[in-house]
Amino acid sequence: MENRILTCIGCPLGCTLTAVPGAEGYEISGYTCKRGLEYAKKELTSPERTVTSTVRVCGGTAKVTSVRTATDVPKDAIFAVMEA
Fold first, then answer.
1. pLDDT surpasses 80 at 1
2. Which of 10, 45, 54, 71 has a 20 to 30 Å separation from 34 between CA atoms?
3. Residue 23 has what pLDDT?
4. How confident is the model at residue 50 (pLDDT cuts 50, 70, 90)?
């Protein structure tokens, strides 16, 4: 494992987080609130994202409409979500 630098997206501050490999996973520093710590833990163990896109509309007045997943999906499932 190597050091990781992350930018927290848990609140508007956008703290720069440093994750250093330790005996029990990563040691995380640089966060100013609990959300930063939780974001880093989640990002390092099971990263997820909200998927937003557009889809074609058949028979409507608009040619496309915007869509968004109701919840975050694992990063490795994004292409499957887009395919669906």
1. no
2. 71
3. 86
4. very high
SS3 of the chain: helix, strand, coil, percent, to 5: 25, 35, 40
C-beta neighbour count of 11 within 10 angstroms = 13
Angle at 40 between CA 3 and CA 53, to 5 degrees: 110
Label residue 46 exposed, middle or buried (CB < 10 Å: 0-12, 13-18, 19+): exposed
pLDDT at 4: 95
On the CB side of 34, how many CA atoms lie within 13 Å of its CA? Answer: 0
Could you give the CA distance from residue 36 to residue 41 in angstroms, rounded to a whole number?
A: 9
